[in-house]
Backbone:
């Protein structure tokens, strides 16, 4: 499991931070505020998670809206006509930038 | 399933919340069959219909977002399509959510099976201002597209027609959908496909482009297929690995990401061409409802209200009105069965007390379950169940559970009155394996309907002034203990189970359809009935053996037989030799009369009105006029008195009482000397630490079969006699225990029962759902140890400090909730930490 994370997590954490500093104003989804529209820059998690998010319609470059912030509880996000609840942990690992 | 060679099999696929089940129901009507896929817990639903004289078998695949081999449902769907080779596959697509649904369409199309789209929920799409050009869409995806509204049965005929057409045409030009994955992926796919085509077996069995794609996606199932069927498997797999590596270093993304992105791009393009949006994307009614229902403050309050209503309707309406009404019919049915069984002996005892009574004990709860399942189907179909998981997730997660643990816990009886069997079954919907296992382990700790009678019995004897509050305490404490146990288990023995972040779709709210709800509830109830019957028949025999054998010694049997003879002789003497009825009642006549007497008494009790009583008399007098005169206290139908008959009546009444007393004593003694009884006494030295004497031990041991037995066994032991209704048992126990039992005894027993191991039926369900005997044994043993420790603490603590039971209960609750709070914070911190470090 650990290994596959390393392979599939294409934005390695350390590399990611360096890139962020120079380029896009990326932040974890967890930091977006309610009502904000953001675009996904990278997805996190292992291979299974990736595919699952993709099959539910969440992919890099998807535009989503934060309906309800977690803490406590999962985040509620919307894209097209889909509403997804996403655990706070996941929300920390999905990197987004405001649209 | 396959009858004539003309029959065809059609697979029905679709993403969750696409209304697939409404399409399935509309297609097949009532001709449905539910089973499980072999070895796993995914439901397999099949149904049939006829079109143009041809029988079509529809297999409802589980709802999945995609066809990877990620979840069990996805694997099942994929295996079915790959190996059963249906004549056609219909993908039910949510028209209001086309883009995402196309993702599955593409994956299905790649499997090369003739395919049609059911563009469902056209009405919802219309309300949202979406206009879909179905002609163009059909061209774009290369397959027939049929607009449908499943819950109103619209478009179903067209769909049947389309299925008929594509299944006849085969893989003709109909499914010409071939996604272009772009300049980076396509050459690789081409190379792989070529290499794969060298294998005759692979090429014959599987669509090679699909296989090549799956291999590039690093799909383990695809790799397995290659390993199984290809001669040059190492060669293929290593070249796949090379290609993947090369791809990643050149494109700076993994192949599966590139593939997924292409799919979405193409889906987006198709939607852009085919769908016109006439209204701006806006906040829907669903969003407005969610603002309240998922609100931090209002949400839990609303949820509390919904749960209260759920309990009120099931326990009040179902439990107090509908269930007693149904019990009458169950009792009648039981009598019918009893009357056809062999009259006496071991076989009757086994069939009746073992199997029939065991099954009926649970069947008694059936009306309550039906109502509960109906209400839950409404909650599910309306879309609220997903919100429940959403609201509860945070709180439950701190204990190693999951938002979706809520439903199983409700079914198990969080407050009072559930059943662990449907609770354990309901964990199927959970994807998070670790949380699922934890939930399965704690659901039996909830207060199932069979534990409640014992609570009520003990509370009514020992806590007369505090009945309501004690029951309330019990449910709070069991919930508290269950949460602590969940936390401990998930941090220890279940630590290595796979966990998963929380992702759940919140479907738009729907008004559930009546037929849909009823169908689902009936289906679940039926599944439950089948399970219960098969399980109970199996285990009832074992338990019956334990409480029946080795049986009374010959000496004791002779003693009882002698007593019976004495009583009969006394009876004969009492009625006098010159009594004309004496001849009638001699020998086997007495037995015959006994049956007649019992029948009359029983039916007399049931007859309320005067008319009914008269009709009854008429009936019985016709059956046997002489007997009737006796049971009617010497009066014939015409009202003429017969003093001899009256005398017999008085004497028989005494005899009857005596015989029944002897019978109870004999049964009681049989239990005492049975294996269960020996076991109870064997355990007494240990169990007395918790205040349980051997009688209680026997009752506890017998309740292992089904908790209902607890009160029933106490009934036999405390010799409440034939009519062992609740009140008489309460009195009998009160008298019997007045000297020795304190309320603390009762409290310890109640707590032990609350945590006592699940009944065997539940354990077998645990075995089925976890697929592991080891976990079943664990589920059976840990509650005994835990329950015993708690019972000992409560009992000894209460005795040492000479506290009243209410004081003990208060202290104990405080103790539990302190631990609960502590585990919550520990659990929450570790959960947050884990999520962040991931």
Residues:
């Amino acid at each position: 499991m650990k290994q596959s994370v390393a392979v599939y997590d294409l934005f390695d954490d350390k590399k990611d931070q360096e890139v962020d500093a120079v380029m896009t104003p990326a932040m974890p989804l967890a930091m977006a505020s309610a009502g904000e529209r953001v675009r996904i820059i990278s997805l996190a998690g292992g291979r299974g998670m990736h595919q699952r998010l993709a099959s539910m319609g969440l992919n890099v470059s998807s535009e989503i809206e934060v309906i309800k912030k977690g803490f406590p509880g999962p985040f509620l996000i919307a894209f097209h006509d889909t509403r997804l609840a996403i655990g706070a942990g996941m929300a920390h690992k999905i990197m987004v930038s405001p649209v | 399933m396959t009858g004539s060679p003309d029959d065809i099999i059609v697979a029905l696929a679709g993403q969750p919340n696409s209304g697939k089940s409404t399409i399935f129901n509309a297609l097949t009507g009532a001709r449905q069959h539910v089973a499980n896929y072999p070895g796993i817990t995914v439901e397999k639903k099949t149904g049939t219909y006829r079109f143009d004289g041809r029988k079509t078998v529809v297999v409802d695949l589980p709802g999945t977002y995609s066809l990877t081999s990620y979840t069990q449902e996805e694997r099942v769907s994929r295996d079915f399509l790959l190996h059963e080779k249906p004549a056609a596959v219909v993908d039910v697509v949510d028209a209001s959510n086309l883009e995402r649904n196309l993702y599955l369409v593409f994956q299905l199309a790649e499997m090369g099976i003739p395919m049609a789209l059911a563009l469902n929920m056209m009405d919802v799409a219309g309300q949202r201002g979406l206009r879909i050009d179905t002609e163009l869409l059909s061209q774009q995806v290369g397959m027939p597209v049929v607009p449908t509204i499943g819950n109103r049965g619209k478009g179903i005929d067209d769909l049947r027609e389309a299925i008929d057409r594509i299944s006849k045409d085969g893989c003709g030009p109909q499914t010409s959908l071939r996604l272009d994955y772009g300049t980076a992926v396509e050459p690789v796919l081409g190379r792989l496909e070529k290499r794969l085509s060298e294998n005759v077996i692979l090429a014959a069995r599987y669509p090679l482009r699909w296989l090549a794609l799956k291999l590039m996606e690093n799909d383990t199932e695809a790799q397995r297929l290659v390993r199984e069927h290809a001669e040059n498997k190492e060669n293929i797999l290593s070249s796949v690995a090379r290609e993947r590596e090369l791809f990643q270093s050149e494109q700076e993304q993994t192949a599966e990401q590139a593939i997924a992105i292409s799919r979405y791009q193409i889906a987006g393009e198709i939607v852009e061409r085919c769908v016109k949006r006439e209204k701006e994307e806006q906040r829907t009614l669903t969003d407005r409802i969610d603002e309240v229902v998922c609100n931090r403050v209002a949400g839990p309050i609303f949820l509390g209200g919904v749960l209260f209503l759920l309990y009120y309707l099931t326990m009040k309406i179902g439990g107090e009105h509908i269930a007693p009404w149904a019990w009458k019919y169950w009792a009648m049915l039981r009598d019918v069965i009893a009357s056809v069984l062999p009259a006496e002996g071991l076989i009757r005892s086994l069939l009746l007390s073992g199997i029939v009574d065991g099954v009926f004990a649970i069947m008694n709860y059936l009306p309550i379950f039906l109502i509960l399942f109906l209400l839950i189907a409404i909650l599910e179909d309306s879309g609220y169940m997903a919100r429940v998981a959403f609201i509860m997730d945070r709180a439950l997660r701190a204990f190693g559970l999951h938002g979706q643990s809520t439903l199983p816990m409700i079914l198990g009886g969080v407050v009072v009155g559930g059943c662990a069997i449907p609770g354990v079954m309901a964990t199927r919907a959970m994807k998070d394996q670790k949380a699922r296992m934890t939930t399965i382990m704690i659901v039996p700790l909830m207060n199932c309907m069979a534990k409640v009678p014992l609570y009520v019995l003990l509370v009514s004897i020992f806590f007369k002034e505090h009945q309501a509050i004690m029951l309330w305490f019990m449910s709070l404490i069991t919930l508290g203990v269950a949460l602590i146990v969940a936390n401990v288990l998930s941090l220890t023995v279940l630590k290595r189970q796979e966990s998963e972040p929380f992702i759940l779709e919140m479907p738009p709210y729907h008004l559930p359809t009546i037929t849909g709800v009823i169908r689902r509830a009936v289906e679940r109830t039926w599944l439950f009935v089948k399970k219960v019957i098969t399980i109970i028949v199996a285990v009832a025999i074992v338990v019956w053996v334990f409480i029946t054998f080795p049986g009374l010694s010959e000496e004791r049997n002779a003693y009882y037989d002698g007593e019976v003879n004495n009583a009969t002789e006394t009876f004969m003497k009492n009625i006098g030799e010159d009594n004309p009825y004496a001849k009638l009642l001699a020998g086997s006549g007495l037995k015959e009369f006994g049956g007649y007497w019992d029948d009359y008494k029983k039916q007399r009790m049931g007859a309320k009105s005067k008319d009914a009583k008269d009709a009854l008399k008429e009936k019985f007098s016709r059956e046997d006029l002489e007997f009737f005169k006796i049971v009617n206290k010497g009066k014939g139908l015409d009202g003429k008195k017969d003093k001899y008959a009256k005398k017999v009546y008085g004497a028989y009444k005494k005899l009857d009482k005596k015989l029944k007393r002897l019978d109870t004593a004999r049964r009681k003694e049989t239990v005492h000397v049975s294996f269960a009884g020996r076991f109870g006494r064997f355990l007494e030295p240990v169990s007395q630490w918790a205040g349980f004497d051997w009688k209680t031990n026997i009752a506890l041991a017998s309740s292992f079969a089904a908790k209902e037995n607890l009160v029933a066994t106490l009934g036999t032991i405390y010799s409440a006699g034939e009519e062992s209704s609740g009140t008489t048992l309460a009195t009998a126990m009160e008298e019997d225990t007045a000297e020795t039992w304190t309320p603390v005894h009762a409290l310890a027993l109640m707590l032990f029962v609350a945590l006592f191991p699940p009944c065997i039926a539940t354990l077998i369900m645990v075995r089925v759902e976890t697929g592991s005997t080891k976990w079943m044994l664990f589920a059976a043993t840990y509650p005994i140890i835990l329950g015993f420790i708690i019972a000992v603490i409560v009992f000894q603590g209460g005795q040492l400090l000479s506290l009243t039971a209410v004081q003990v209960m208060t202290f104990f609750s405080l103790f539990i909730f302190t631990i609960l709070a502590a585990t919550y914070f520990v659990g929450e911190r570790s959960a947050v930490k884990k999520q962040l470090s991931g």
Chain A touches chain B at residues 1, 7-8, 10, 44-45, 47-57, 59-62, 67-68, 70, 72-74, 76, 78, 80-90, 92-93 (CB under 8 Å).
